[in-house]
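Table S7 (text form). Paired inputs.
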Amino acid sequence: MCQTYNGWLFLLTTHYTWLCIYIYRTIHLLTELALLPSMAKVYPQTPSSSSSSPSSSSSSTYISSKQECFTIWMKSLVYNSHGCTTYNSNGEIVYRVDNYDKKCSSQVYLMDILGNVLFAIQRKKLSIFGCWDGYKWDFSKKQRWFRATRNRNTLHVDLGFDKKGYKIIGGKLGFKIVNLDQDGALVAEVKRKQTTTGIDLGSDVFMLTIEPNIDQSLIMAIIMVHGLIHRQL
C-alpha cells in the first residue's frame, strides 16, 4: 500500500511540475506579445531589412557627417529584465543594454544589435559622489576611453589627451551634452519623445539628437552612465 501511495504521489508531483512549466511558458509568451504593441508605439516605423550589420563595419559606422536622431527606450528586449534599447531613424535597433535582474548594476555593457560589446561601464568603488569608467572594447582587449565623475548635480566626462571633455547639463527627463573644448558647443541632446500631436510617450521614452562628426557609440555610453545615476536602467 505504501508503494502504491508513493507511486500516486510521484505521478501527481510530475503532473504538477509540468503544469507549472506550461503556465510559466504561457505567461511568458503572452507577456512578450503584449510587449509588441508597446514597441510599435515607441517606434512605429517598419525596420528595413537591407541594413548592414554594425559589427561588420569599422568604427566609422558610429560617426555620421550629418545630424542623426535616435529613439531611446529605457527597457530591455529580454523578458522581465532591466536595460535599454535604442532605435535609429529607420526604426532599426542599433544599441542595447541588458542588465537582466539587476537595476543600476555596478557594471553594464553597451552592445550592438548582435550582442557585440562596444563599451563596458564600471562604477569605481570608494568614490564619494560617484565615478564611472568607460572601456572601449576592441576584440579581445579593452581600454579606458572616458571617466565620468559626478559632483553634486554636475556630470563631467574626462576624455583624456589633455582635453577638458564633455559636460552634461540638465536632469533626469532631459539634458544636453556640451563640449568644453569648444566653448560649450552642443554635442547631443536628450528629451522626452512625443507623438505628432505633442503627447509624451512616457517617462522612459526619449529622443536623442547627435550632432555631426561625433562618435555616437561614445555618446550612448555616456547616456548610459546618466541613466545609471538616475536609476533608469
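Next pair, protein 2 of 2.
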Amino acid sequence: MSGQTLTDRIAAAQYSLTGSEVSRAVCKATTHEQTAPKKKHMEYLIQASQETTVNVPQMVDTLMERVGNASWVVVFKALITTHHLMVHGNEKFIQLLASRNTLFNLANFLDKTGSHGYDMSTFIRRYSRYLNEKSFAYRQMSFDFVRVKKGAEGAMRTMSVEKLLKGMPTLQSQIDALLDFEVHQQELNNGVINACFLLLFKDLIKLYACYNDGIINLLEKFFQMKRSQCKDGLEIYKRFLTRMTRVSEFFKIAEQVGIDKNDIPELTQAPESLLESLETHLNTLEGKKP
C-alpha cells in the first residue's frame, strides 16, 4: 500500500481542527504507508519533546491511540516512533512512559489481513515486549542504559557492589528482550521492520557497552566481595558468557543487511581460566576443598 490512506488524512485533519500540532505529527509519522516514519516528523516530535510549552502526556496518549490501531503498519510505526523518542527525545518522555504501570499490551496482537500481516504481527509482539522492558529498566534504575555515560567514568564502571548486583540482572533482562526479536535476513523485507531493526541494533551496541562496563566493574570488585555477593556475581558473569553468542549472532545479521562493519563492535571472548579462578575463589569462601 503506497501513499497515505483516507483514514490517515482524516486522523491528521481531526487533530488540526483541535489545534494539536504534536498529535497531528504523530499521525503523520504513523500512516499506513509501508515505509519508515518520515525523518521530518520524527525531528519535529523530538524538538517538541524539548519544549516546555508542549503537552508531552498528550504526545504519549496519541501514540498509545495509534498503537491501538488494527493495522500492523500503523502499530509498528507507532512503536518505532515511541522508541525513537525514548532514545532521542527529552528525558521526561521516557520518565512518563516508565511511570505507567502498563505500557504496551500487545501480547495477542494479530493483523489477519494477508500473510504479511501475520508475519509482521509476530515482530510487533516481540518489539513491544522489548520496549516494555526498556521502560521497566528505566523505572528500576532511574536512568536509561542506552543514554547513560559509558567507559571508565561511566555509570556501570563506578557503581557500588550493591547497586551493580541489582542493576546487572535488569540490564540482562533488557538485552534478552532485544535478542528475542529473533529476525532473519530474509524477514527484513520492508521499510518498517528495517527501521525497527536499525533502532534495535543501535540500542544493542550501547547496551553491550554498558554490559561490558558492568562486568569489568564486577571482576574488579569480585575478590573483595562477601560470599553471598560472590555467588550472585558469579551467576551474572556466567549469564554474560552465554549471551555473547546471541549478541554475536545479532551483529552477524546486521552485517548481512549491509550495516557497515566498522559500526559493529568486535566481541572478544574471555579466557576460560578466568571463570575457573572465580569459581575457585567462591569455593574457598564456602569452605569447599578443591
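The first helix runs from residue 6 to 17.
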